[in-house]
Known about the structure:
This protein has helices at 2-6, 10-22, 28-54, 64-80, 83-91, 98-112, 118-151. The protein contains seven helices and no strands. By secondary structure, the chain is mostly helical. The termini are far apart. The longest helix is centred in the last third of the chain and has 34 residues, at 118-151.
Amino acid sequence: MANKNKKMTPAQQQYQKVAKTKEPPRPILSNCVKAFFSGGLICLIGECLMELFKHNGFTEKTAGNPTVAVLILLSVILTSLGVYDKIAQWAGAGSAVPVTGFANSMCSAALEHRSEGLVYGVGGNMFKLAGSVIVFGTVAAFFIGILHGLFT
């Protein structure tokens, strides 16, 4: 922070000091509680879906695929209707549970850029986010695979 202040003019530094005094305090504890319970509720819905699929002919291994598909579909539908964004404003990080949060961000990018066309608008902008997630997910899986191979 001190390094950042050195590049600012004295007027900018003074403004930053005044702005810090006027900034409202962040409700960190309440945000954490909301994120915990909302993320837990999303996971609970996923578990209920998985149990539903297991009781209707799927095995433990095969019930995961339709569960993920339904969670993605629900997330995309709620995003398209503008409901997921309202949930996310209240829930904060809890709404970013990997499957639903990723589907929400992909759908939001597609909706935002649909006027630019399917290829350059929807496809190009939707996969800007997906590309980085896929790359870092693949790299993380690679290293975890190496560690798993070394220690088992």
